[in-house]
Design brief:
It contains no helices and 5 strands. It is an all-beta fold.
């Protein structure tokens, strides 16, 4: 059986509105808490063709040479506020330990 190469995922930064916790006891609600709770996530965008969840933006932290992904988050499309594709503008960094 031939080994399939890993998908070519794009690196992205996504800002999205998350549910967040309010007070955990009897209280008066904070009238100043009117804004969305915006989260910033950075990772590899997984399309539906590559196994991403329908109606969600699927983002993985890591990709192995055999195509496995790690630390996956599913963000409902309606919660996404902004997506940017990351592009390298610097040469490759030196390996740890090689800095003198």
């Amino acid at each position: 059986m031939e080994k399939k190469p890993p998908p070519d995922f794009r690196y992205i930064v996504v800002k999205w509105a998350d549910a967040h916790q309010g007070p955990g006891e009897w209280c008066v609600l904070d009238e100043e808490d009117k804004d969305e709770h915006i989260i910033t996530t950075v990772g590899l965008m997984v399309s539906e063709n590559d196994g991403g969840k329908p109606k969600h933006l699927t983002v993985a932290q890591s990709l192995s040479p055999d195509g496995f992904v790690d630390h996956v988050i599913y963000i409902p499309h309606g919660m996404v506020r902004h997506i940017a594709t990351l592009q390298s503008v610097f040469p490759e960094l030196p390996l740890p330990g090689s800095l003198q």
